[in-house]
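Our working data are protein records whose layout never changes between entries. Getting from the letters to the tokens is the skill we practise here. To make this concrete, we reproduce a full record directly below:
***
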Amino acid sequence: MADAVIFDLDGVIVDSEPVWEEVRRAYVAAHGGTWQPDTQRRLMGMSTGEWARYLSGELGVDRSAEQVAAEVVDEMTRRYAAHVPLIDEADEVVRRLAGRWPLGLASSSPTRLITAALAATGLTDTFGATLSTEETERGKPAPDVYLAVAERLGVDPARCVAVEDSSNGVRSAAAAGMTVVAVPHGAYPLDPDAERLAAVMLASVDELTPETVAGLG
């Protein structure tokens, strides 16, 4: 039986991956960089510092990593102020699970975007611990953020169920020793190795019921 459930944010609760891709693609194009065929796949799960350095360095954007991070996050904040794209009935799924287990949030989004997204969806109080990879040494696929959230919840990582959409997210939670529920985004399918790490694959987050989680114990 699981002792806690830890959610990713982007791609699980908020359909933000397409927004991130659109904003960062436009930013790279506007600042002299070159978007590569594998860029979006590589970006998913990177911490703010990691993707800012990647855009500034490998993609050739004519801005420092610090400028990249500040300017891209400013644009994402503007987008969220206008509309936070909630996935399916993700808010109701979260509330149902919160009735049975302590919940955590382990996100690659910057802290201020996590705050904005949770406030807009009315979920701020449902999570006992929330953490951005901005505050950990390494982003996903390293396990740092999942281990830190489990520690804040006071729960053994091996007794946690993690809910993830991306290959790097699944790798991160699995590396932390958690049981992983994968809910892949239609536009970003899982890599085969990540698919093998997931205990269960769901077509949609609204398939995530308390019974599903209880059955993973």
Notes: The mean pLDDT is 95. The chain is about 45% helix and 10% strand. Strands lie at 4-7, 103-107, 129-132, 160-164, 179-182, 200-201. The longest helix spans residues 65-82.
